[in-house]
Amino acid sequence: MSLLLSGAKTMTFAGTEMQCLEIYTGEAYTIGLNFTDSTGTPIDITSYTLVPTVKYYSVDTVTYDDTLGEVNLGNITEDSPQGTQPTGLAVTVVGAVSGEAVLYVPSDLTDGVSNRPTVPLINGKSDPSVLAIITVTISRPDSAVPTNTNISKEPLGFIVRYQ
Fold first, then answer.
1. What is the CA radius of gyration of the chain?
2. Strand, helix or coil at 88?
3. C-beta neighbour count of 111 within 10 angstroms
4. Using H for helix, E for strand and C for coil, what is the string for 7-46?
5. 3-state class of 94 per DSSP?
6. What is the rounded CA–CA span in Å between residue 76 and residue 49?
7. Other CB atoms closer than 10 Å to residue 44's CB: what's the count?
8. Band of the pLDDT at 80, cuts 50, 70, 90?
9. Sorting pLDDT into bands at 50, 70 and 90, what band is 2?
10. Which residue has the higher pLDDT, 145 or 84?
11. For residue 137, which of 53, 56, 57 has the smallest C-alpha distance?
12. CA 133 to chain centre
């Protein structure tokens, strides 16, 4: 299972390919998540549990290859301490039988992290840039053995810009 975002670029982070969007502080997004099988038929997610979490990284260079639709990141460092989860980050099921949910990305994705940005802004951007990886943890009963719980983690990358 993978999540695809409209208008996203591809990013490979720690060997994991994921979708990546650039957002500015003050912007909030409601991103539709549609669960379908390989033929495009909706999956009933009535018994699914969907939990978002975020982890923060500092990146000293961010470049874009529009031809390939890729984001290239240089010198990635995991932030420590991580801080708390941002206020309002949530996944809500809006149509369980039709496999529809939404991920809400709040207007300040880094409000759970102290002192962001930690350096002066340069042309409206922090240096280093903030990379927020939102992971949606999906727990669901196994179709063959319903007492077993299958768990998958679907990462989405957000490059946070300040304005």
1. 17
2. coil
3. 17
4. CCEEEEECCEEEEEEEEECCCCEEEEEECECCCCCECCCC
5. strand
6. 31
7. 12
8. confident
9. very low
10. 145
11. 53
12. 5
Domain boundaries, the chain: 9-161
Task: Look up tokens 């031809």; give the residue.
Answer: 67
pLDDT digit string, tens, across residues 84-141:
788 889 999 999 999 999 999 888 777 666 555 444 445 555 566 777 888 899 999 9
CB of 132 within 8 A of CB of 161?
A: no
Six token digits for residue 148: 């077993």
Q: Would you state the structure tokens that stand for residue 140, as one six-digit string?
A: 């669901």
Side-chain half-sphere CA neighbours of 139 within 13 A: 7
Q: How far apart, in whole angstroms, are the C-alpha atoms of residue 118 and residue 143?
A: 47
- Cα–chain-centroid distance for residue 21? 9
Residue 5 is inside which H or E element, if any? none
d(CA 162, CA 134): 18
Which of the two residues, 1 and 120, has the higher pLDDT score?
A: 120
**Helix ranges restricted to H, the chain:** none
Q: Per-residue pLDDT tens for 54-66? A: 888 888 777 777 7
| Token pair of 126 as six digits | 């922090």
